[in-house]
Amino acid sequence: MVQKLLLLFVFIVFLSSCTYEDGPKFSLISKKSRAVNIWELDKAYENGVDKTNDYKRFFVNYKIEIKKDDSYELSYNPLNIGKFTENGSWTFSDDKSKIIFTPNGTTQNNEWKILRLKNSECWVVQRIDGKDVELRLKD
Question: Which of these CATH numbers, 3.40.50.720, 2.40.128.280, 1.10.12.10, 2.170.130.30, describes 28-138?
Fold first, then answer.
């Protein structure tokens, strides 16, 4: 009986550690394996208002590659004029509820609160100029 209760307790702790606000509720794939990907902008919201068209016009070809070696590369074409790239390192917060990006040459961190993290979907929110900006990324 004690073994069954212990097994149930471990399962409940494991299950609760896998979830994000918008899912998945359960995954056998590690959070890092799900985060490592080449992500492209699918949708964008500011304070819950759909701003996808505005973001896609300003951040043309927005793409972030999160790499297994804890590095990342962000790129886009601002207003389709020129090219912006940023490289740096990334990590999870201690509770794995956020992805923290640190661009090379700076100590300033950019945090994404994770709402959903699946193999082909990553929904995050960040606070920019007093607004909650939600990015829905896909591979």
Answer: 2.40.128.280
The DSSP call for residue 8 is: H
8 Å CB contact between 23 and 112: no
Residue ranges per domain, the chain? 28-138
Burial class (CB in 10 A: 0-12, 13-18, 19+), 16: exposed
Tens of pLDDT, residue by residue over 76-125, are 999 999 999 999 999 999 999 999 999 999 989 999 999 999 999 999 99
Residue 109 · residue 93 · CB < 8 Å? no
The first and second tokens of residue 89, run together, are 């390192």
Grade residue 29 by pLDDT with cuts at 50, 70 and 90: confident
Spatial contact of 109 and 91, defined as CB atoms under 8 Å apart? no
Phi, psi of 104 (to 5 degrees): -60, 140
Structure tokens at 80: 């389709």
